[in-house]
Amino acid sequence: MTYIMSLLLFGLVLGMVAVASNPSPYFAALGLVVVAGLGCVVLVGHGGPFLSLVLFLIYLGGMLVVFAYSAALAAEPHPESFGSSPVLSSMMVYLGAVVGLGCVFWGGWYEASWVPGDELSNFYVLRGDIGGVALIYSSGGGMLVIGAWVLLLTLFVVLELTRGLSRGAIRAV
Fold this sequence. Notes:
Number of helices: 6
Structural class: mainly alpha
Largest sheet: none
Distance between the termini: 58 Å
Strand content: under 5%
Order of helices and strands: HHHHHH
Shape: flat
């Protein structure tokens, strides 16, 4: 299990580096989908299958909307890909920073932290993430409204950032 989790977390870090280093919205959206999928698989490995399913569906729905708007507004004839030299150089800088920080914080990691929370307790009928579902709908309603508002604000920020000076698809004809 430790090797699988290590492989998944390594892919998660590589996906985040791909998102951070790519200026094109097409390839960055692909990297975000990979990061979302690997993050949800890591959550499943730690004992949260329902939470990971909900996060994956919500995140992919939001990403579909943001990707559609940003792709429509930032239509580039020749987008930068992962093989171009500016993207490769920024990926190497980010990977060097991740490796450097990993070397600094290496002493605090132990294999006991890979054990899911459900394996540390007695035998229960329900899994640990089922109790969180009731809390989302009872006392977490305000946080859901705040989260929806933040997602709407993020959509407008992404649209404004990708618009640039050319106005994209909604310019005056």
